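Training component of the fellowship. As part of building independent skills, the fellow (R.M.) carried out the full modelling exercise for a liganded target. The chosen ligand was 3-methyl-2-oxobutanoic acid. The inputs are recorded below so that the supervisory panel can assess the work.
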Amino acid sequence: MSITPFGGRPGFSGDHELRRKVTTASLRELKLRHEPITCLTAYDYSTARLVDEAGIEMILVGDSLAQTVLGYDNTLSVTMDEMLHHVKAVRRGVKNALLLADMPYGSYHLDAQSALGNATRFVKEGGAEVVKIEGGEKRADLIRRIIDAEIPVAGHIGLTPQSVNVMGGYKVQGKNLGDIEQLMRDAVALDRAGVACIVLEGIPREVAAMITAEVATPTIGIGAGPECDGQVLVFHDILNLTFSPPAKFVRRYGDAAALIGHAVRAFRADVKSQQYPSDEESYHLPKETKAGLDTVLARKRAMQR
Ligand code: KIV
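Fellow's submitted model of the complex:
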């Protein structure tokens, strides 16, 4: 049986014990071996444990936390403290996967000092192994400084949700020759800066394929077609927990909304009809205490008569 992070039968808990810790170096090995890399988001301890034990190589505490868990309209509102709270919870559930934390909007946009401070908090307080930053060429200097501070960085280009107001909505990027050239410059700048991986979001398959062939850094696609070195999806998307129609690239692997709705309705019905809890689901007094209590109550009743 393989003891690499990549072999074995994912989901079998024995393999989880044997599987090696995934590192940034593992991602490069996987790219070289043409073995697709898997990444899912997670925002809490129990989900992180399940995703980790299923053999997913990278777990991202995405700023999609904003919409999926915190109910914000977009990713712009989520704060460093909110992100950190969830990174810590996920850390406690992850054993083998590489743990990435998303730098939220405003945490790296002001100046390099505060960006370094926030990246350091994710590592020191949150236990993250990689921080993710949106933007290409224009972020390369900042990314180099963060890497110089011994913090691996993941790049993220294409449809970058933190730029929603500049892009004028969530639109597929890289559809004309000028934009394709810019995307290629962005990818090459991140590659040269030494990022651990590059998330390619919402770009045509052909462009993602060109970038993936051009850079040594593993590319992780979301809405970027099958030629990327790996794929990332939002946990809530694959399980129908988003309360909105899925994007074109989302594949649903389960219906947690239906499962949860069914369980909650069944619980409600059982309580209303006094089917829950049963005697078997109740605690009981020890025999002697029960006998003593019965005697006390009988005496009380007698005195009241
Ligand atoms: O926040 C997030 O979930 C992400 C992924 C979609 C890559 O950035």
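The panel noted the following from the submitted structure. The chain has a mean pLDDT of 95. The longest helix spans residues 287-304.
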